[in-house]
């Protein structure tokens, strides 16, 4: 291989792996390879005004493409800015390849300005973190990063790139990274055990997560649910894992308190867990919530999550799509047949006359926008109203926040729109969540990304209101005024003015009579557009 500087070779490697975009925020120790980037044909640098935004846009892009996304951060300070959103990507299994520059290996002993242990910083919020210290291992390390990010359980990885390593001559070949196939099926005897545990149940239950979507197993999961006549609940579920209008779909389990999950699973005599861990609440039950005699079957490619918190009877480290297909065959052979109620037809509800503003807006959006809208949902407390009228039904058309950190709604929608430029992408967020990453609007305007944004403005962190009510109840504390730190209404945030200041047209909606016109104006806008929807 002809020698060339490592800063040139990395773009050959990125091209070999199909990367055409890098989301990032520039810095001095990255300027060498960013200078090279300017001359790379067909390669785009998507500038974010803060590292959290860069990671969030890449997260949305990776989810919409179901492939890896490339992010550049600025050494330790930039990585520090992005830690919270990296945690979200890790919890949500987003395959991000994150790189950051360093002054150089030669300066390791100097404890110089901005020097820090980048790998130690990144390890808690990534699947794998490393530092390249020799020019001859630059490209093989990047290939390992791509492979690791894309191998189940998927997740973000981090590679520190010292300047002197990038300046040195490199003779490694740039070849595509190897992504191992994980389309593995359990041996027949194990599938027989799983079918036996489920087929005789009188009160079966299914708990699913995003491993179903990654596997493309939505159809097989639905067939199993119909054969068992089993209610299905989403657990750590942020994409379309089952048509949400199906009569067996029950909705999402709570993410905060384990008492909710415990109550739902308490009566099940057989439970099938697919593509998720149990249970992901902030305050999970410390006791096994399943019936002592319940038969538990857990299918996942992530062996760490199987039986992590509670014992199971049949543990299958397998691809959900193929394992579920095997269960369909066995349940059918055992005489199970779909029930009549499994084929019911869903009809969109009509909002009542005095319905809340969020319901009126969601209903009007469904009416005008149709079923092809792509929704990026960080509406949080407003999400039930949104999905009531726009339930997730089409694979790849719905993404919700995951991981617990705020700020994904606006930049996530931008990334999804860049991945799918022909789709109508609308990002929903709250007034609180939007202010973590509001500067992402500038990137949408700069890049001409025709995504749309809705801020569900209730003038407070309403989720905290709900959570502290639970806290009061559990501890016998009388209801009283919410903490003042939950209030976002003093002073009023001018979202329309903020958006316009960053080049994005916007309007405020305060009355029901404004809803239809606002939806029409948003959907017909030729550039990015924001609606400040006052819900309270």
TrEMBL record:
Coiled coil: none annotated. Its cofactor is thiamine diphosphate. GO terms for biological process: isoleucine biosynthetic process; L-valine biosynthetic process. One of its GO terms (molecular function) is flavin adenine dinucleotide binding. GO terms for cellular component: acetolactate synthase complex. Residues 398-532 form the Thiamine pyrophosphate enzyme TPP-binding domain. InterPro entries: DHS-like_NAD/FAD-binding_dom, THDP-binding, Thiamin_PyroP_enz_cen_dom, Thiamin_PyroP_enz_TPP-bd_dom, TPP-bd_CS, TPP_enz, TPP_enzyme_TPP-bd. Keywords: Thiamine pyrophosphate. It comes from the Bacteria. Residues 9-113 form the Thiamine pyrophosphate enzyme N-terminal TPP-binding domain. The keyword Transit peptide does not apply. The keyword Nucleus does not apply. Residues 191-327 form the Thiamine pyrophosphate enzyme central domain. Pfam families: TPP_enzyme_C, TPP_enzyme_M, TPP_enzyme_N. Belongs to the TPP enzyme family. This is Benzoylformate decarboxylase.
């Amino acid at each position: 291989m002809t020698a060339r500087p490592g800063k040139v070779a990395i773009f050959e490697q990125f091209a070999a792996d199909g990367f055409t975009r890098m989301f990032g925020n520039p810095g001095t120790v990255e300027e060498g390879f960013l200078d090279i980037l300017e001359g790379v044909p067909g390669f785009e640098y998507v500038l974010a005004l803060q590292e959290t935004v860069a990671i969030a846009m890449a997260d949305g892009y990776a989810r919409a493409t179901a492939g890896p996304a490339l992010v550049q951060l600025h050494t330790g300070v930039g990585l520090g800015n992005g830690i919270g959103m990296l945690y979200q990507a890790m919890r949500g299994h987003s395959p991000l390849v994150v790189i950051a520059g360093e002054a150089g290996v030669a300066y390791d002993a100097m404890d110089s300005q901005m020097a820090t242990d980048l790998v130690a910083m990144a390890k808690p919020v990534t699947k794998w973190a490393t530092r390249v210290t020799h020019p001859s291992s630059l490209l093989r390390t990047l290939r390992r990063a791509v492979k690791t990010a894309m191998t189940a359980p998927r997740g973000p990885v981090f590679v520190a790139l010292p300047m002197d390593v990038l300046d040195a001559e490199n003779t490694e070949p740039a070849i595509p990274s190897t992504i191992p196939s994980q389309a593995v099926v359990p041996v027949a005897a194990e599938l027989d055990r799983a079918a036996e545990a489920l087929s005789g149940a009188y009160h079966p239950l299914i708990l699913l997560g995003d491993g179903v979507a990654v596997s493309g197993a939505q159809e097989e999961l639905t067939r199993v649910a119909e054969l068992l006549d089993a209610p299905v609940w989403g657990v750590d579920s942020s994409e379309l894992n089952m048509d949400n209008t199906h009569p067996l779909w029950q909705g999402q389990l709570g993410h905060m308190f384990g008492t909710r999950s415990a109550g739902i699973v308490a009566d099940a005599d057989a439970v099938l867990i697919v593509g998720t861990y149990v249970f992901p609440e902030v305050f999970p039950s410390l006791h096994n919530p399943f019936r002592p005699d319940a038969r538990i079957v857990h299918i996942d490619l992530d062996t760490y999550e199987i039986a992590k918190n509670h014992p199971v009877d049949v543990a299958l480290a397998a691809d959900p799509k193929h394992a579920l297909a095997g269960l369909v065959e066995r349940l059918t052979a055992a005489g199970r047949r779909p029930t009549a109620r499994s084929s019911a037809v869903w009809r969109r509800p009509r909002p009542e006359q005095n319905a809340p503003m969020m319901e009126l807006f969601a209903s009007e959006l469904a009416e005008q926008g149709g079923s092809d809208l792509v929704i990026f949902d960080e509406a949080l407390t407003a999400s039930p109203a949104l999905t009531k009228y726009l339930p997730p039904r089409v694979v790849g058309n719905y993404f919700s926040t995951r991981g617990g950190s705020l700020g994904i709604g606006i930049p996530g929608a931008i990334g999804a729109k860049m991945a799918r430029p022909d789709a109508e992408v609308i990002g929903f967020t709250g007034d609180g969540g939007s202010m973590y990453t509001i500067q992402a609007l500038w990137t949408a305007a700069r890049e001409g990304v025709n995504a749309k944004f809705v801020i569900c403005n209730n003038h407070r962190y309403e989720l905290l209101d709900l959570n502290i009510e639970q806290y009061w109840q559990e501890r016998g504390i009388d209801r009283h005024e919410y903490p003042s730190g939950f209030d976002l209404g003093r002073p009023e945030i001018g979202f329309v003015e903020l958006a316009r200041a960053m080049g994005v047209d916007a309007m405020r909606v305060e009355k029901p009579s404004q809803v239809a016109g606002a939806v029409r104006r948003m959907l017909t806008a030729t550039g990015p557009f924001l609606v400040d929807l006052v819900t309270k």
